[in-house]
């Protein structure tokens, strides 16, 4: 673990709410998430559609710092997603400005993002987590347009995006790889009420 003892207040947890769903707890990242995040992003299958390669310990540490900093600057961001029954870090989900430089039709809007650990894949956790994150975001900032990018072969994420009202509107390259650019302009297509 790099720095910190996982103390929630010192690590910045007061910047974000804790949202509980039927099976998950969404909260801000803390320093103590570093090892678990490294394990998630070390899995080649998990990273296949994101960067195509595992992330280093340094990249994971910088990502945690970036997430916490985004909460401080914007008042919303990407949540760490814990499995409630075990307390295990299952992944991440939320909305953020990643600064991807994909154009004026993309960059100003909050971007939805989700990633789940290999052990958590296929259980509906990504959908449950992004539902809660979007519902909370809409409650905080209103029903603003949201965007996301997904690799064309990432069928599980394409299904999650479609379920949540994201519709493709163009294709482009991001870091030399094709992505489908999506937007969401309507409220969630179903009632989602985080506990």
> What is the level-2 CATH architecture name?
3-Layer(aba) Sandwich
Highest CATH level, the class: Alpha Beta
Task: Record the strand order, biggest sheet.
Answer: 1-2-3-4-5
Question: What is the chain-wise order of helices and strands?
Answer: EEHHHEEEHEHEE
CATH topology: Aminopeptidase
Structural class label: alpha+beta
Overall description:
- This protein is α+β, with helices and mostly antiparallel strands and 195 residues long.
- It has one domain (13-184): Aminopeptidase, CATH 3.40.630.30.
- It is built from 5 helices and 8 strands; from the N terminus they run ββαααβββαβαββ.
- The chain has helices spanning 34-41, 44-47, 57-74, 125-141, 155-163; strands at residues 19-20, 24-27, 78-83, 89-96, 111-116, 146-150, 167-174, 177-184.
- The strands form 2 sheets. The protein has a 5-stranded antiparallel beta sheet with strand order 1-2-3-4-5, with helices on both faces.
- A hairpin with a 2-residue loop joins β7 (167-174) and β8 (177-184).
- α1 crosses α3.
- The chain is globular and about 40 Å long.
- It starts with 18 loop residues before the first strand and ends in an 11-residue tail after the last strand.
Fold blueprint:
Blueprint: E1 19-20, E2 24-27, H1 34-41, H2 44-47, H3 57-74, E3 78-83, E4 89-96, E5 111-116, H4 125-141, E6 146-150, H5 155-163, E7 167-174, E8 177-184
Antiparallel strand pairs: 1-2, 2-3, 3-4, 4-5, 6-8, 7-8
Helix pairs in contact: 1-3
What labels describe this entry?
alpha+beta, five-stranded antiparallel sheet, disordered N terminus, disordered C terminus, 195 residues, Aminopeptidase
